[in-house]
């Protein structure tokens, strides 16, 4: 059988991820926050004080890239960074008051966006989609 681009999931995953990111970026535009910056804030809303290394690991990004992302978020006064008391080589990232205050509004925005992305999918299909994508990611590690 000959290979065609549209036969595998990679093509659709790439296109869907690009479209998802583009549309979410437009949704976040009034806040001047990018999707990856939102992801960092989301991690910190779940666990404030993560190290830069932990953020990089959870996002699947290299540390220099995460450093640049954090610099941009810090310039917006949404986070602060400080040396970890137990490891002077590590830097912890904390939400500022402004970063904490944005949580309800941005989470509501994200939930509304997700609902529009899932339009036409049943709850079972949404769960199945998440499970299948998780399996694919695990297979590729």
List keywords for this structure.
single chain, 141 residues, mainly alpha, Arc Repressor Mutant, subunit A, two-stranded antiparallel ribbon, 7 helices, 2 strands
Sequence-ordered SSE layout with sheet pairings:
Blueprint: H1 9-28, H2 35-46, H3 52-59, H4 63-75, E1 79-84, E2 87-95, H5 97-101, H6 103-117, H7 123-139
Antiparallel strand pairs: 1-2
Q: How would you characterize this protein structure?
A:
A two-stranded antiparallel ribbon has the order 1-2. 64% of the residues lie in helices and 11% in strands. The model has no long low-confidence stretch (mean pLDDT 94). 11% of the residues are buried. The protein has one domain: Arc Repressor Mutant, subunit A (Orthogonal Bundle). It is mainly alpha-helical. It has seven helices and two strands.
Q: Summarize this, please?
A:
This protein has 141 residues and is mainly alpha-helical. It has helices at residues 9-28, 35-46, 52-59, 63-75, 97-101, 103-117, 123-139, and strands at residues 79-84, 87-95.
DSSP helical segment count: 7
- In round numbers, the mean pLDDT is 94
CATH topology: Arc Repressor Mutant, subunit A
CATH superfamily: Winged helix-like DNA-binding domain superfamily/Winged helix DNA-binding domain
Strand content: 5-15%
The appropriate CATH architecture is Orthogonal Bundle
Number of strands: 2
**CATH domain class:** Mainly Alpha
Fraction of residues in H or I helices: 55-70%
Give start-end ranges of low-pLDDT stretches.
Answer: none
Largest sheet: 2 strands, antiparallel
């Amino acid at each position: 059988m000959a290979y065609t681009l549209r036969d595998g999931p990679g093509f659709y995953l790439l296109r869907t991820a690009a479209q998802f990111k583009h549309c979410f970026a437009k949704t976040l535009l009034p806040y001047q926050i990018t999707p990856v910056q939102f992801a960092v804030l989301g991690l910190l809303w779940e666990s404030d004080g993560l190290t830069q290394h932990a953020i990089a690991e959870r996002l699947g990004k290299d540390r220099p890239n995460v450093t640049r992302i954090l610099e941009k978020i810090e310039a917006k006064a949404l986070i602060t960074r400080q040396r970890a008391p137990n490891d002077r080589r590590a830097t912890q990232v904390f939400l500022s008051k402004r970063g904490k205050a944005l949580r309800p509004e941005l989470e509501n925005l994200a939930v509304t966006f997700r609902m529009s992305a899932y339009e036409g999918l049943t709850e079972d299909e949404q769960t199945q989609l998440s499970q299948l994508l998780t399996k694919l990611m695990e297979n590729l590690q």
